[in-house]
Design goal:
elongated; 13 helices; 5-stranded parallel β-sheet; alpha/beta
């Protein structure tokens, strides 16, 4: 194992890779040594082992903070390990750098941040290089006398006309859905994964897709193979896969995908040339098969949507979210982690449920309000499943 000590390990999500690389470059140009996934985790290496090695090699860690970083489940294990080693901040072991406007919660909010959101390049570089140093940041020249500036400041003036306040929304949770023009064709899980097509039975998996009606999200064939190499790490960082899960990644002229290697192979993440983004994962299992717990499924789907929207790829203004359940046999309605010998089944069985993808929504709503979008998609899935199985 390489035991050469370095100064910083840079923790980030795939959505902020450009920021992380820029930060790493200016730090090394100033004489610091860093470890960063983009440069140091080479093909063939084990991601979890590389992270563990980096945390041991580097006495300090930079967390590149953004909404994507705070949503992703995996980075929390990185900064939490560093925070635990220096809870009082005596060694300045954890250095958050805010590159997009966001508000950390909990323990992370207590760590003093370097905020470069909205700064130009020179100011951002100065802020970082001054911020990572442990010594006092006393200026070399005296600051200007604040009194003079205060006395010459122009007094605030009231608006010359009355300003109406915005009327509150009658339904804050309402999302604005519309018919897509032109309509989209969704590639479902069995269209994306040959092994899913070849298997008639398996664990029930929920699948979610983001399809774009315009051509703004299209990818080139030459990009797909590169994305196949990159998708496993994104899947691990966004919580689609665990750190220790064996994965299979490949690409052809229409799709780049990564799937878990297991008996049922239920988990997957895929990108098509049309720009569609897809992921799927198993429903929790109970004593009598898969359990459909509405609240738990909304949380699961929220994480899946976050994994898709944190992909730093082209997208259109409108997106068509689609949800499905495949296979949809032996599904019981209940509560996850609550043992029960009673399962609610319909009178009929459905091989699969594909909710009709006939409505679009503003892409920004999926980014900003994934839980609301997830709740609506789950409601549609349950309604279609109940109708197909005769449940009322």
């Amino acid at each position: 194992m390489d035991v050469v000590a370095k100064d910083f390990f840079i923790s980030y999500t795939a959505a902020d890779e450009v920021w992380a690389s820029w930060i790493a470059y200016i730090l090394e140009a100033d004489g610091f040594a860093v470890t960063i996934q983009e440069w140091d985790f080479r093909p063939g290496s084990n991601f979890a082992v590389e992270v563990d090695k980096a945390l041991k090699q580097c006495p300090r860690m930079i967390a590149v903070l953004s909404p994507a970083y705070l949503k992703a489940p995996f980075p929390a294990s990185e900064w939490a390990a560093v925070y635990a080693s220096d809870p009082e901040g005596a060694r300045k072991a954890l250095v958050p750098i805010v590159v997009q406007e966001c508000q950390p919660q909990g323990l992370l909010s207590q760590v003093v941040q370097i905020r470069i959101h909205g700064l130009d390049e020179a100011a951002a570089r100065k802020q970082i290089l001054e911020g990572v140093r442990r010594e006092r940041n006393k200026p070399a020249t005296p600051p200007p006398f604040p009194g003079a500036a205060a006395s010459t400041a122009a007094p605030a003036t009231a608006a010359p006309y009355p300003v109406a306040s915005a009327a509150p929304s009658s339904s804050p949770s309402r999302l604005r859905w519309q018919s897509p023009a032109p309509p989209v064709s969704v590639s479902w899980r069995k269209d994306l994964d040959q092994r899913a097509r070849d298997r008639s039975l398996g664990a029930a998996a929920v699948e979610v897709h983001l399809a774009f009606p315009a051509g703004d999200a299209r990818l080139q064939v030459s990009e797909l193979s590169t994305l196949a190499d990159w998708l496993p790490n994104h899947g691990r960082r966004s919580g689609v896969f665990t750190l220790v899960e064996a994965l299979h990644a490949d690409a052809d002229s229409t799709v780049a995908r990564v799937t878990s290697i297991g008996h049922y192979n239920e988990k997957g993440l895929a990108l098509t040339r049309s720009g569609q983004r897809s992921t799927w994962a198993p429903l929790p299992r109970g004593q009598m098969g898969a359990v459909l717990d509405q609240d738990d499924l909304i949380q699961q789907l929220t994480r899946m949507l976050n994994a898709l929207t944190t992909l730093d790829l082209p997208h259109g203004d409108l997106v068509v979210p689609a949800i499905g359940l495949d296979p949809a046999t032996m599904i019981s309605y209940g509560t996850v982690n609550t043992p029960s010998n009673i399962a609610t089944y319909g009178l009929a069985q459905a091989s699969h449920i594909h909710v009709s993808p006939d409505e679009a929504i503003d892409y920004g709503s999926v980014v900003d309000r994934p839980a609301d979008v997830a709740a609506e998609l789950v409601a549609r899935l349950i309604a279609d499943h109940r109708a197909a199985t005769g449940l009322r």
